[in-house]
Specification:
10 helices; 0% strand; transducer; MCPsignal_dom; Methyl-accepting chemotaxis protein
Length: 648
C-alpha cells in the first residue's frame, strides 16, 4: 500500500466501507423477507381459517333461520324460497368448515366434528320437521310441524353453534399468540441488524484510523523529524521513505537531496580549509605567488559565500558563472551541479505539493457534498417519521371507530333477532285465533240448523193446532211464538256468522302482514350479520395496519438516529479534510519562498464538480481531533524553524 497515492488510499478505505454497507443491506433484506413470509403464513392460514369458521357459523344460523321461514311460510313460493336458502346455507356450511379444517391443523378435529354434527342435524334430526313444514298448508299441520321443529330441531342448534364459536375463538387466540411471537422475532431481527451495523462501523472506522495513521501520519511525522534534524545541522539523520512511489516518497527524496547538499557543503568547507593550509605553506615561495593565490582563494571564497547567501535566501536559480582557478574549477562546477539538483528537487516538491493540494481540494469538495446530502437525507427521514406518526394515529382512530361500529351492529342484530321472535309468536297467536274463528263458525252453523229445525217444528205444531180447532188455539199461539223466536235465532246466527267470516278474513290478512314483517326482519337480521362480519374484518385489518405501521415507525426512527450520527461524523471528516488542505497550503507558502526558475511555485487547484456518492463514509470521531492537533504542531514547528533555513 505504500506505493499507492494518497487519493487511492482514501478510495480503498471508502471502498471497504461500501462493501460493508452492501453486506449489511443484503443481511437486512434477508431478515425482512423472513418476517414477511411468516406474516404471510399467518394471514393465509390461521387468520383465513378463523374467517372461514365465522362464515360457517353464519351459514349455520342462516340454515336455522331458513327452517323457521319454511315453517311459517303460507305460500308455495315462500316455502320454495326457504328450501333454496336452506340448501344454499347447507352447502356453504360444508365448504367453509372443510376449507377451515384444511388450513388449521390445531383445530381441524373440532371443525370436522362440528361439520359432521351439523350435517347430521340437517339431514336427520331436522328432516321430519322440514318435511312437515314443506307439506303443511293448513293451520293444524303448520302447528304440528312447528311443534316438531321446536321440540326436536331447534334445541340441537345451540350446542353445535357454541362449539363452532369456541373453535373460532381458539383460532383467534392462536392467531394473536403467533402475531405476538412474530412481532418479537421482528424486533429481535431489528436489534441484531442494528448491532451488526454498529459493530461493522466500529471495525471499519478503527481500520481506517490505523490505516491512515500507518500510511500517512507516521511517514509524515518521521519525515518531519528528519527535516528538523537536518535544519539543526544533524546530517546523520535517516531519511525514511525514499523508496516509496507515492507523494510521501517524493518528499522524502527531496529531503534526501537537502541532506546530500549539506554533506557536500561540509566537504567543500573541508577542502577550502585544506586549500588555505596549502596556501599558507606556499606563501613562503614567493610574495607574488602568494598574492595571486590569495586573490584567487578570496575570489573563490567570496563567490561561494555569495552562492551560499543566495541559497540561504532561497534563490535556487543562482549559478557561479565566472571561472575559478583551475584548482578551484571543480568546486564551482560541483556547487553549480548541487544548485541544479536542488532546483530540480524543489520543482518536484512544488509539483507534488500542488498535486497534494488538488487532491485535498477534491476530498474537501467531496466531503462537503457528502455532508450536505447526509443532512438532506436526515431531514427527509425526520419528515418521513413524522408522516408515519400521523398515519399511525389515523389508522388507530379508524380501528377504534370500527370496533365501536361492530358493537353497535351487534346490538342492532340482537334487537332484530328479538323482534323476529316476537313476530313469530304473533303469527302463531293469530293462526290460533283463525282456527278458533273457524270453529266458532262451525258452531254458529249448527245453531243455524237447530233454529231452522225449530222453525219447521213450530210450523208443524201450528198446523196441528189449527186442525184441532178451539182446543189447539193456545198451542197454536205458543207455536207461533216459538217460530218467531227460531226465526230471530236464525237471523242472529246468520249475522254472527257474517261477522265471524269478516273477522276471519281480517285475521288472515293480519297473518299475511305479520308473516311479511317476519320475513323483512329476518332479512334485516341476515344483512346486519353480514354488516357485522364486514365491520369485524375492517376492525381486524385496521388493527393489523396500526401494528405494522407502528413497527415501520420504530424502524424509521432508528434509521433517523443512525443518519443523524452519520451526518455528525461526515462533518468531522469534512473538518479534517479542510485542515489537511490548509496544511498543504501552508506547505506551498513555505516552498514559494524558493526561486526555482520558470516553474511556478503555485498551481491553480483543479475544479472538481460534485459527484454523487453512493454511501456516506463517516470518519472516526476520535481520529479527527488528533489529526488536527498533529497538523497544528506541524505548522507551529515549520513557522518556528522558517528562519533557520539561512543557517542551513
Amino acid at each position: 500500500m505504500k506505493h499507492l497515492s494518497i487519493i487511492l488510499k482514501f478510495l480503498s478505505i471508502m471502498g471497504a466501507f461500501g462493501v460493508f454497507t452492501i453486506a449489511m443491506a443484503f443481511y437486512a433484506t434477508g431478515q425482512l423477507s423472513s418476517t414477511a413470509r411468516s406474516y404471510d403464513n399467518l394471514i393465509n392460514h390461521d387468520n383465513r381459517a378463523s374467517y372461514l369458521v365465522a362464515r360457517g357459523n353464519r351459514a349455520m344460523m342462516t340454515a336455522e333461520a331458513s327452517i323457521a321461514n319454511l315453517l311459517i311460510a303460507v305460500t308455495p313460493a315462500g316455502k320454495k324460497k326457504a328450501e333454496q336458502e336452506l340448501e344454499t346455507a347447507h352447502h356453504q356450511l360444508d365448504d367453509f368448515y372443510t376449507q377451515a379444517a384444511s388450513l388449521s391443523s390445531s383445530q381441524a378435529a373440532t371443525i370436522n366434528a362440528v361439520r359432521a354434527d351439523a350435517d347430521q342435524l340437517l339431514n336427520q334430526t331436522c328432516e321430519l320437521g322440514i318435511k312437515q313444514g314443506a307439506a303443511a298448508t293448513e293451520g293444524t299441520t303448520v302447528l304440528t310441524s312447528q311443534a316438531t321443529y321446536l321440540s326436536d330441531c331447534q334445541p340441537a342448534f345451540r350446542p353445535i353453534v357454541a362449539r363452532a364459536f369456541g373453535a373460532a375463538i381458539a383460532l383467534s387466540h392462536q392467531t394473536d399468540a403467533e402475531a405476538v411471537t412474530l412481532k418479537a422475532d421482528a424486533a429481535h431481527s431489528v436489534m441484531l441488524t442494528f448491532a451488526a451495523i454498529l459493530l461493522g462501523l466500529a471495525v471499519v472506522l478503527t481500520g481506517g484510523f490505523f490505516a491512515i495513521r500507518t500510511w500517512l501520519v507516521t511517514p509524515l511525522n518521521a519525515l518531519q523529524g528528519a527535516m528538523m534534524k537536518l535544519s539543526g545541522g544533524d546530517l546523520t539523520a535517516n531519511v525514511a521513505g525514499s523508496d516509496r512511489r507515492d507523494e510521501v516518497g517524493s518528499m522524502a527524496r527531496a529531503v534526501q537531496v537537502f541532506k546530500d547538499a549539506g554533506i557536500e557543503k561540509i566537504r567543500l568547507e573541508g577542502e577550502a580549509t585544506q586549500a588555505r593550509q596549502e596556501a599558507e605553506v606556499l606563501r613562503q615561495r614567493g610574495e607574488a605567488e602568494r598574492e595571486t593565490a590569495a586573490k584567487q582563494l578570496a575570489f573563490v571564497v567570496e563567490s561561494l559565500a555569495a552562492g551560499l547567501e543566495k541559497l540561504a535566501a532561497g534563490a535556487l536559480t543562482f549559478r557561479l558563472s565566472q571561472s575559478f582557478a583551475p584548482e578551484y574549477e571543480r568546486l564551482r562546477s560541483d556547487f553549480n551541479a548541487a544548485m541544479e539538483k536542488l532546483q530540480d528537487t524543489m520543482k518536484i516538491i512544488t509539483a507534488n505539493t500542488a498535486a497534494i493540494r488538488a487532491g485535498t481540494g477534491e476530498i474537501s469538495v467531496a466531503a462537503d457534498d457528502l455532508s450536505r446530502r447526509t443532512e438532506q437525507q436526515a431531514a427527509s427521514l425526520e419528515q418521513t417519521a413524522a408522516a408515519l406518526d400521523q398515519i399511525t394515529a389515523t389508522v388507530r382512530r379508524t380501528a377504534e371507530g370500527a370496533s365501536h361500529a361492530r358493537e353497535v351492529v351487534g346490538t342492532a342484530q340482537a334487537d332484530a333477532e328479538r323482534s323476529g321472535e316476537v313476530v313469530r309468536e304473533a303469527v302463531a297467536a293469530m293462526s290460533g285465533i283463525e282456527a278458533s274463528s273457524q270453529q266458532i263458525g262451525n258452531i254458529i252453523g249448527v245453531i243455524d240448523e237447530i233454529a231452522f229445525q225449530t222453525n219447521l217444528l213450530a210450523l208443524n205444531a201450528g198446523v196441528e193446532a189449527a186442525r184441532a180447532g178451539d182446543a189447539g188455539r193456545g198451542f197454536a199461539v205458543v207455536a207461533s211464538e216459538v217460530r218467531a223466536l227460531a226465526q230471530r235465532s236464525a237471523d242472529a246466527a246468520k249475522e254472527i256468522k257474517a261477522l265471524i267470516s269478516t273477522s276471519t278474513q281480517q285475521v288472515g290478512s293480519g297473518v299475511d302482514l305479520v308473516g311479511q314483517t317476519g320475513k323483512a326482519l329476518q332479512r334485516i337480521v341476515t344483512q346486519i350479520g353480514e354488516i357485522n362480519s364486514v365491520v369485524v374484518q375492517i376492525a381486524a385489518s385496521a388493527q393489523e395496519q396500526a401494528t405494522g405501521l407502528h413497527q415501520v415507525n420504530v424502524a424509521v426512527n432508528q434509521m433517523d438516529q443512525v443518519t443523524q450520527q452519520n451526518a455528525a461524523m461526515v462533518e468531522q471528516s469534512t473538518a479534517a479534510s479542510h485542515a489537511l488542505a490548509q496544511e498543504t497550503q501552508d506547505l506551498s507558502v513555505l516552498i514559494a519562498k524558493f526561486q526555482i526558475g520558470e516553474a511556478t511555485t503555485e498551481q491553480p487547484a483543479r475544479h472538481v464538480s460534485p459527484r454523487p456518492v453512493p454511501r456516506p463514509t463517516p470518519p472516526a470521531r476520535a481520529a479527527t481531533p488528533k489529526a488536527a492537533t498533529a497538523g497544528g504542531r506541524k505548522l507551529e514547528i515549520v513557522s518556528n524553524t522558517a528562519e533557520k533555513w539561512e543557517d542551513f
